[in-house]
Amino acid sequence: MKLVRTDIVLLISMLVAVSFATIATAQPHPIPLMDGLAHTGVPSCATAGCHGDQVTGDGAGPIVGQNEYFQWRSPTEKGAHSRAYEVLLTPHAKRIANNLGIGAAQKAAECLDCHADNVTPEQRSQRFQISDGVGCEACHGGAQNWLAFHRIGAGHEKNIEAGLYPTEDPVARARLCFGCHLGSSFENQFVNHRIMGAGHPRLKFELDLYTTVQQHHRVDDDYRQRKTVAPGAQVWAVGQALGLERTLELLLDDETGRSGVFPELVFFDCHSCHQPISNGVADLDWRPNPGRSIGPGMPILNDANLIMLQAAMRVIDPGLAERLESEGRSLHMASLHGGSQFRTSAETLRSIATDAANSIMTADLADAAVIRALLLEIVSTEQSSRYTNYAAAEQALFAVQRLSAALQLQGPRLTNSIEKASRAAQSPYAYNQNAFKAALNDISRQIGR
Ligand code: HEC
Ligand code: HEC
Ligand code: HEC
Ligand code: HEC
Description:
Strand content: under 5%
Strand order of the largest sheet: 1-2
Bound molecules: heme C
Number of strands: 2
Number of domains: 2
Shape: globular
Structural class: mainly alpha
């Protein structure tokens, strides 16, 4: 079911009428696109003395850096959100929009719901400009009720009550980022295979890495006093669990899960269909995967998050790892048969993913021994034989990079092995699983000592 803004506002007002106390605890914070609040616009955050302070442009503000606006506008990848609208004016975007026949990309809700802060016209205050792209309030929430007091030390709780989005909480953050980087059932936050076919790039995402890349704030003593800082390994693991949960939600949803008589192709591994056809024995590429008993010649559900989560849970919660293993197999098998068995299996797996997220959020993932065990599991021979598909290798590489950074592992040999693994998985069309496995095995030998 597609959820549109009016439904949500109605739902919230009904719940408020029933009981204000229960909704505060039972309802997750609405994501900024759906918060119903006035969005005051990037210029209202970016003034001197606030987050666009020229004088302390080096990030030396007493509490927050006060240079967040300049960081958000960085010409590097970190500043991508500030250019998300401009991207819609490029020949690439025009081509996509033409192929889809939706008119100008920069006017189409199908694009703006992810490439800008596309709240309703009534929610746009005087200084709001859609051309600011993914602005501050697209993540931090409409500032209507907190703009005036959040800077005079009202306290984080008060700000959150007034509609500031809890971006520091990894679970809330995942729900926010996934809307645009994986998809949601809100309005038009979904890139289906038709949009991909029209030329949209494949979406890839890993919560911990992407949080780090776009980081525009300073984590210092007073930040730690104000907020709980989740360890990177926890952010990584919960991102895998919630990524699986979100994917299955969208797959189970009739609006997003199907496309005519076909299942929606975007949930399948792109390169199980898009690859060169082999002409002889030498370049035959199919190989079995120990996590699923699907033979050759079938499209495969994209199970990259599942594969990573299985590894994480073998360390964090072995009982849940077993449930993931058997239900993962069932889902793959059921994908060959379809029908109600497929639905039941997807629903069960989704609820296991939710349990896994809860388990991860209560585990101690700041413990170096646990992080090391996670890394060793990711690069183990048993696990790397599951990286038959490019999407899984891509996630494994993200994990190796983030977990070795969390352990502050360094050295030319390790760098060299990680580079070898990156080269083996550089291009989806030339992914070499044997070379990838060999590089991970090198890493395993180095950290296993
Ligand atoms: C579900 C959210 C979502 C929707 C809907 C969406 N996009 Fe995107 N788009 C993204 C994300 C995220 C990226 C960045 C992909 C990456 O690099 O991982 C992106 C990247 C792009 C790029 C490449 C940008 C570059 O820097 O090379 C273009 C062009 C683009 N989108 C155009 C469009 C158009 C046109 C539409 C509407 C038909 C659209 N997008 C709809 C999320 C979305
Ligand atoms: C893509 C989402 C996103 C966008 C866009 C974004 N932020 Fe953030 N911001 C975050 C996340 C995630 C954090 C880190 C977690 C936290 O402290 O809440 C953060 C942290 C911050 C902090 C640190 C708060 C503290 O307690 O020290 C400030 C200040 C901030 N952002 C201001 C801005 C401003 C100003 C803009 C616009 C120019 C902006 N952000 C745009 C996601 C975003
Ligand atoms: C409203 C939609 C939206 C939200 C919410 C959002 N992003 Fe993005 N993000 C985009 C789009 C669109 C792009 C691509 C823009 C471009 O190509 O310039 C992007 C690009 C990025 C990039 C640059 C790398 C790349 O692939 O282009 C990073 C890193 C990133 N986002 C991280 C995050 C994180 C972390 C969160 C959650 C805190 C988040 N984003 C939330 C829409 C969003
Ligand atoms: C079940 C098989 C299947 C899967 C899985 C699949 N596709 Fe496709 N794809 C197709 C078919 C069929 C076409 C249409 C080919 C045609 O029009 O000639 C297509 C067309 C495309 C095109 C247009 C190619 C062109 O240049 O004409 C792109 C781009 C594309 N897909 C991207 C993706 C991405 C990204 C994914 C993964 C998220 C994906 N596909 C998953 C079968 C698949």
